[in-house]
Fold H(+)/Pi cotransporter.
Amino acid sequence: MAPGQLRVLYALDVARTQLYHFTATVIAGMGFFTDAYDFFAISLVTDLIGYKYYLDQGEVHIPRGVSAAISVIALCGAVPGQLVFGWLGDKMGRKRIYGVTLILMVFTSLASGLSFSKRVGKNVVAVLCFFRFWLGAGIGGDYPLSATIMSEYANKRRRGALIATVFAMQGFGNLAAGIVGMVVAAAFMKSDPSSHADFAWRIVLMFGAVPASLTYYWRMKMPETARYTVLVAKDAKKAASDMSSVLNVNIAPEDEAVNQLTRQGQYGLFSAQFLRRHGVHLLATSVCWLAVDITFYSLNLFMPYIFTHVGLLPTLEKGDNPFKLMIDITKVHTTIAICGTLPGYFATVALVDRIGRVRIQILGFTMMSVSIICLAAPYDEHWTKPKNKYAFAVMYGMTIFFANFGPNTTTLIIPAEIFPARLRSTCHGIAGAFGKIGAIVGVFAFRYTEDHVPRTLFGLVGCNIVGILFTLLLPETKGKSLEEIAGEIEEQQPQQHADAAASEEHVQVVPV
């Protein structure tokens, strides 16, 4: 045990990977499952919404601004959600705010599907955007809380893999969106689109409430993390009791050590000391997240348009069945999720604690750049020819693979590890908010430059290069305790130096 480290935190660091780790992973992961479903399902039903409310003489004419608003409004809500709920997670506790975000997600998922207006027609889209904004706020709040809770529960040897596993549930949520969209479209295939298109998109969006509601009970049964209870709430007895039960070991409370922490001056977010210790870290995590989300969300949300342009998907012509188009879109969406998205997450889970976070992030940014250049450079002369459309899909899938075996996952992991416990959720929320700002920029930029796909793709390469440069400012965190990474052990007075070895006798720990 390192000098100055509390026994309860040492017990968490060296505990073998056991049932409670997997339970916490599933509970936290279902939040990301719901997040991904709600974020990406909208791209599958936008054409149905257009068919219902923007059909003019048999053809869909949905304005670019309206289409962009439908796609981006949840991302706009995620920005204040990450900032506010991230801050509340440090002020009021991870567990308490965790339940609030989940309730908000369930309610707004249902409300999105029940968006109605007395003035039937385009006003329904305005009501939908209102509820999806608040849905985004709940999703945004789930990001810092889920990542922080998992990082504070995990042992130091497998912490990266456990957080990555939580985030990998996003891939399953993406896959579920495709499957639900396909099933719903197939169910309405033989019906009249003019009267049933309205039911189909509502069912798809409302289904997002199901996984969120199923996990509420288990989220509320989880104890508060020991790191919050000790390092922020200063309750040694509660932390020792909770973790003794969770780890099935005997951990003695350390009231005097916690009192010593209370007497120490602890710097705040806007202090010179925070700027000196973590200012560069906050800047680097924020810029890296912004850079990767510009690429990741623009490619994912506008995948139907890109694939239509290269001939992988048909366009919705006058008289076409919109449900048939929806099935075609969801088939491609599901194939990309299975062949590119999920393998990327699994590769990160397997290797992040071996290779390290920083190396994987640099590798991911680099390979994304190479893949996008291969898409952009020969785009007009090569990829738009029908015979090359499947090769284009493979290269596109490689881009998504290296986004997930790379910065899309590591940008979530690193902010959950490098900041002190009292500011961890707040700083993660700040970095994540920059990411969602990047996603908003990517969506609008792509929407208004969609007639110039190669130019837009080269712009994404520039974002990746910025991500590589700022990644070089980040420390490697694999194999270290959170307190060591954040400098919290150094802040403590080393009063336990003389009896560090004796203190370990109070913790019965099963070796990793």
